[in-house]
Amino acid sequence: MRKICLFSFIGLNIILLFNCSPKASKKVTSENKVVTSEKIEEDKKIGIEDRDIDMSDADNTDSEWKRKSIDEKFDALGNLGVEHQDLGADVYHSKCGSCHKLYSPSSRNAMSWIKILDKMAPKAKLNEEQQINVTAFLVNKAKK
User: Fold this and answer.
1) Which one, of 57, 28, 50, 66, lies nearest residue 122 by Cα?
2) Looking at the structure, do residues 77 and 142 belong to the same domain, yes or no?
3) Which residues are paired to 34 by β-bridges?
4) What is the pLDDT along the chain (144 residues), one digit of tens a residue?
């Protein structure tokens, strides 16, 4: 009886150890390769960001916002007030956070966020106003 209790106790501890130990966060690229958080940090050190964002199902409809260059978008976002950023924060947390881990706005620079939102907004089914607001929020909080 003691052996059964001992083996049960050891077995439960092993199961708990494996299930509760911290794991490296992972990101799946468009080729379904898993990239660990360590690799992402390593890439950032050498200037590689925004790894493999898949554009295969991006919305191809044309709008004034989509036709603007990144620099034009950056300039236009500077004219938006805090209310747009607040709306953008709400959409960022509700829409973006429903599909994946939310990245800290300060984890990327403004130009990177604009590029990412141009690619991800159609996937998240954001309308143009939502995209502009989320971009305003992220660009305002982006690393300088």
Assistant:
1) 57
2) yes
3) 28
4) 788 877 777 876 777 666 665 554 444 444 434 445 555 565 555 444 544 444 444 444 557 888 888 888 888 888 788 888 999 999 999 999 888 899 999 999 999 999 999 999 999 999 999 999 999 999 999 987
Kind plus residue range of the DSSP H or E element containing 36:
strand 34-36
| Residue type at 129 in one-letter notation | E
Q: Concatenated DSSP letters for 67-117?
A: HS-HHHHHHHHTT--HHHHHHHHHHHHHTGGGTSPPPPGGGSBHHHHHHHH
Distance of CA 75 to the CA centre of its chain: 23
Domain count, the chain: 2
Boundary (domain end) residue, out of 7, 33, 54? 54
- d(C-alpha 41, C-alpha 106), whole Å: 14
